[in-house]
Amino acid sequence: MSISIEDFQQLDIRIGSITQAERLEDSKKLLKLTVDFGDETRTILAGIGKTVEDPATLVGTQAPFLTNLEPKELAGVISNGMMLCASNDDTPVILAPVTEVKPGSKIS
């Protein structure tokens, strides 16, 4: 399926810095991330819990996030965005910039 450049331009994809990461009690898959985008901090749930053995290792790392997705409640927590990952045989692979980027930098 193809989309137009105008459709792509509607996506607000930004680099965020993870400042906190923890497992949700009732989920093996979801991690609760606190993400700094420079001008704001958001709670974002990411389905990477089976990939990340120790969530604390994510603190201080950066990743791309879709920031204009409608908030969604998952496992009793409101998620305000989506972490973007690659997929390796249905296993999420965390993407990260090669060099540190200012939090909130837009991906275009």
Q: How would you sum up this structure, described in words?
A:
The protein is built from one helix and ten strands. Strands 1, 2, 3, 4, 7 and 10 form a six-stranded antiparallel sheet that branches. The radius of gyration is 14 Å and the shape is globular. The longest helix has 5 residues, at 5-9. It has one helix at residues 5-9, and strands at residues 13-23, 31-36, 41-46, 62-66, 72-74, 77-79, 82-83, 85-88, 91-94, 106-107. It has one domain (5-102): OB fold (Dihydrolipoamide Acetyltransferase, E2P), CATH 2.40.50. The protein is mainly β. 5% of the residues lie in helices and 43% in strands.
Highlighted features:
single chain; 108 residues; mainly beta; OB fold (Dihydrolipoamide Acetyltransferase, E2P); 6-stranded antiparallel β-sheet; two-stranded antiparallel ribbon; 1 helix; 10 strands; 43% strand
Short structural summary:
With 108 residues, the protein is mostly beta strands. It contains one helix and ten strands.
Topology of this structure?
Elements: H1 5-9, E1 13-23, E2 31-36, E3 41-46, E4 62-66, E5 72-74, E6 77-79, E7 82-83, E8 85-88, E9 91-94, E10 106-107
